[in-house]
Task: inverse folding
């Protein structure tokens, strides 16, 4: 096997897999979300509305051969949004083929790869681009084209990635809420002359011991996080994303001891404009069966620090978080997660809560709210200060 | 479900030697020996796969159904490894759960959440909580290990057409939701026929009954149906098993984080 001509190798491999394999079954499933949002404060901009409706369609097809050595998955998504033209968008979240042998597997195509362990921020997680129009939480990701060889060894799991192209971050338009209050230009600039065709590479080692899960990672390529520069486009003020090259080293540790989970993520990032370290660390302590009920209560606390201090592009440069996670352990799978964040440099306070409950085998309802109290313009969160919202989602699974 | 330590095998041998010399076994020894015999007869299955339908019924008789698939790998010197894949309810479809059970310490457990593509390490110290909102707790779903309990033989009595050995077992784990369990094990094939669970206040909480035993791979007995009745809240949960496969060649490679991520 050679990676020098990955495209040719892959095409050949895919063809042989498709021809030689009798696919056991094709499984079709998915969901449709109906979403309604209400904004409690007067908008910063006249183009913004106080309510919004949105529909998300997310089907999924999975093929697997009989001896489970080959798996193909296709998961596209389409959202239609009432007010934000940028949020009306489609994406191929996943379209990949996994070939499995006893101690290695090769994963090829558009995939999501998650590297983090903490709750409020994922510093080490840099493979996928954030789909920020979907949710400002940063948890929603765009599919990333990749070839990923994963080796299982006594020493742990070794992952090697080649990432042949780059995808730009999505941003809400000026009509969207929450938004930056300026349109983000579609004409992004790049440090590399290869622009969005730069070949990125990454490697990750992970291993679990009885009470400890560890990982180390290295990434070299286009920084998923753009530097936003104010500019003029056709006489209009816009923000132009600039994507630099970067090298990042990351590590995660997770200690499990009885009812305690201790979590740590740290990175060192080197790009042409800046070199810095950052940490996100904290714990989750779970109280089981509180007050003789079936309800479990998780107490979460985390701290985020960034060496760049107040000039950090990250919103979590010196921030403390507290959270409560209620798991009702009932038939309806009821869950509530509430969190509060405090920026110790800028005195910004943010609050978020999420809850969900299954109605039956096909339907589920969920709710989400976010509030930001910000008075310091220097905090990147300041632009969201008028965008407090409450959102209800009705999901139908098929 | 096997002999977990060489030490245990030695104990077993020495016990059987002892019993030929001294006919009088204490109730504690007899109870333990019955469970060791049950465990021994269910040793050597190597790997196992099956589908499970979990039917939850509330006191009003309303039903909801979960569809689950399970794979297990027998371990010679430790608790078993298992991979559980959820097909229904549909909102949790694709969620998978990897567990390495241990005799002398907490199990190692990871959960795969497909929507986020995330593998999450989870704490296994929650023994008494309900599994998927059912009447089975996490501890009921875990693999049985001899040394997790101390025993007491109570009596022999008829159970249906069979004769059962009635054994009391006391969990050693302080986090167990039970003070004791009473098992009815038939004396012909050493199969669990019935299990009573007593809560922390020592009142009868649940009864688990086993129906439709079938023998697989010429040795291993599995019940088609397990019914858990909760006497205190009137709810019940039925497990209906299908498609049992033994010794199909699963190995450690089918029970790691990579396998967890692609479990479908």
Result:
């Amino acid at each position: 096997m050679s990676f020098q001509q990955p495209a040719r190798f892959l095409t050949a491999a895919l063809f042989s897999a498709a021809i030689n394999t009798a696919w056991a079954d094709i499984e079709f499933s998915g969901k449709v979300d109906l979403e309604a949002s209400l904004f409690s404060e007067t908008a910063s901009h006249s183009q913004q509305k106080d309510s919004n409706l949105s529909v998300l369609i997310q089907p999924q097809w999975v093929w697997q051969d009989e001896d489970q050595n080959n798996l193909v998955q296709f998961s596209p998504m389409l959202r239609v949004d009432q007010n934000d033209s940028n949020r009306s968008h489609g994406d191929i979240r996943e379209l990949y083929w996994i070939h499995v042998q006893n101690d290695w597997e090769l994963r090829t195509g558009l995939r999501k790869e998650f590297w983090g362990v903490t709750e409020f921020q994922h510093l080490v997680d840099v493979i996928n681009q954030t789909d920020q129009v979907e949710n400002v939480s940063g948890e929603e990701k765009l599919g990333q084209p990749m070839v990923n060889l994963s080796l299982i060894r006594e020493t742990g799991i070794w992952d090697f990635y080649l990432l042949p192209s780059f995808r730009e971050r999505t941003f809400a338009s000026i009509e969207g809420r929450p938004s930056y209050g300026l349109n983000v230009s579609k004409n992004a600039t790049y440090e590399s002359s290869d622009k969005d065709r730069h070949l990125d590479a990454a490697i990750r080692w992970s291993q679990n011991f009885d009470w400890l899960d560890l990982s180390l990672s290295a990434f070299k390529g286009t920084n998923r996080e753009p530097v936003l520069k104010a500019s003029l486009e056709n006489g209009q003020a816009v923000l132009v994303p600039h994507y630099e090259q970067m090298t990042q080293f990351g590590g995660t540790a997770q200690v499990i001891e009885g009812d305690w989970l201790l979590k740590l993520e740290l990175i060192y990032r080197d790009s042409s404009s800046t070199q810095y370290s950052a940490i996100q660390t904290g714990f989750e302590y779970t109280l089981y069966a509180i007050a003789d009920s079936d309800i479990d209560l998780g107490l979460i606390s985390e701290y985020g620090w960034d060496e760049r201090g107040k000039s950090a592009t990250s919103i979590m440069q010196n921030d403390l978080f507290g959270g409560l996670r209620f798991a009702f352990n009932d038939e309806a799978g009821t869950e509530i997660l509430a969190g509060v964040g405090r920026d110790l440099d800028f005195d910004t306070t943010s609050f978020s809560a999420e809850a969900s409950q299954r109605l039956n085998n096909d339907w589920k309802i969920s709710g989400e709210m976010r509030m930001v109290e910000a008075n310091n313009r220097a905090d990147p969160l300041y632009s969201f200060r008028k965008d407090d919202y409450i959102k209800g989602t009705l999901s139908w699974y098929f | 479900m096997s002999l977990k330590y060489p030490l245990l095998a030695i104990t077993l041998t020495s016990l059987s030697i002892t019993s030929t010399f001294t006919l009088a076994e204490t109730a504690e020894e007899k109870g333990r020996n019955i469970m060791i015999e049950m465990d021994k007869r269910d040793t050597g299955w190597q790997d196992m796969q099956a589908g499970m339908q979990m039917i939850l019924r509330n006191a009003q008789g309303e039903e909801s159904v979960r569809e689950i698939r399970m794979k297990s790998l027998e371990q010679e010197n430790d608790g078993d490894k298992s991979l559980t894949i959820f097909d229904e309810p549909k909102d949790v479809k694709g969620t998978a759960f990897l567990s390495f059970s241990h005799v002398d310490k907490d199990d190692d457990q990871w959960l795969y959440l497909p929507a986020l593509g995330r593998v999450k390490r989870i704490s296994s110290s929650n023994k008494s909580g309900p599994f998927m909102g059912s009447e089975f707790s996490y501890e009921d779903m875990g693999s049985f290990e001899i040394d997790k309990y101390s025993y007491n033989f109570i009596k022999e009595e008829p159970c249906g057409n069979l004769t059962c050995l009635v054994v009391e077992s006391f969990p050693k784990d302080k986090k167990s939701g039970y003070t004791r369990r009473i098992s009815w094990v038939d004396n012909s094939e050493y199969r669990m026929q019935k299990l009573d669970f007593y809560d922390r206040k020592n009142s009868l909480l649940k009864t688990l009954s086993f129906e439709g035993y079938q023998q697989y791979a010429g040795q291993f007995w599995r019940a088609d149906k397990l019914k858990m009745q909760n006497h205190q809240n009137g709810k019940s949960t039925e497990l209906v098993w299908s498609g049992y496969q033994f010794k199909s060649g699963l190995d450690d490679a089918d029970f790691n984080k990579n396998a967890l991520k692609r479990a479908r």
